[in-house]
Structures are given as structure tokens and as C-alpha cells.
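Fold it.
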Amino acid sequence: MSTTIVDRITELRAKKPLSATERIELRELVLRQKTLKLAKAKTALAASKRKADQSLRFKLGGLVISAGLAGWDEATLRGALLAIAAVKDAAKLAGWRDAGGRAYNAEIQARKAETVALSVTFPAQPSSTVTTALRAKGLAWAADRGCWAGQGIPTEIAALAAPEGGVVSAIASPS
């Protein structure tokens, strides 16, 4: 019969009095239990660090794409980034920050202009992959209307719904 560390610790703690050997065994088991918890915590921390690193890489890759540099070869892009990194002129950096902020705000405004109230209907219940994607885009199931509804960019939502026969319709805003 195999007992776990926790079971054996519980068993030893319940026993009174403990022999010298049992006290040593108890201390070793408690130490082993703490070591295992520490290893588990270190693994979780490493996973969190990897996730943060992947998120940063994804974000930076998105910036490269949104800046229109996706077509550049790796060497050219690396060289340009190294040249940017070498700049120490605060005024030049502030100018780039301002230009980047304006471009970002313009992109957000353009996306807002494309976003409309819409609904999506399907001939049959869509797969969980599609419903998860619709939720990620901010749509929700509207049981009273029997469709998915929310705010979105029609072309993006249509691309998600089309493989399963989904039909996207704009919802007229009440006047």
C-alpha cells in the first residue's frame, strides 16, 4: 500500500509520542513537501514569465505590421531598429512619440467609424470555435432575437461567420 507524503505527515502528527526516528522522518517529509510546493511555484512563475514575454513579442510584432514594415527583410528591419535604438536626442524621440500617438489615435478613430451595430444568424447552431470567436469580438447571444448581436466591423464578423453559413446584418439605430 502506497501512502502519499500528506497522508504520512498526517499519520505521524496524529501519533503521540513520536520516536526519534519518526520525528526525523516527519521533519524530512515536511521539508520534502515544502520543496515540492516551491518547485510548483517556480514552475508557475516561469510560465507567467513566458506568457508575459510572448505577449510582448506579439505586441511588438503587431507594431511592426501596423507601421507597414512587415514586408521588410529581417536584416533591414533589424538594422533600422538598431539605428532607432542608438538615437539619444530627446527632442527626436519626443517627435516620434507624438507621431506614433497621432497614428494610433487615427487608427482607433478609423476602426470606430467602421464599427456598427450588427446581428449574425446561422442556419444551425455554430461550432464552439465560431461562438468563442464571436464573443472575443464583443458579440453576445441575444436569445430574445435568436441571433448573435453586438458592435463590430461587418467584414471581420462576416469572415468569422461565413464558414458556417452565418449571415451578418446591420442593425438600424433607433432615431
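The chain has a mean pLDDT of 92.
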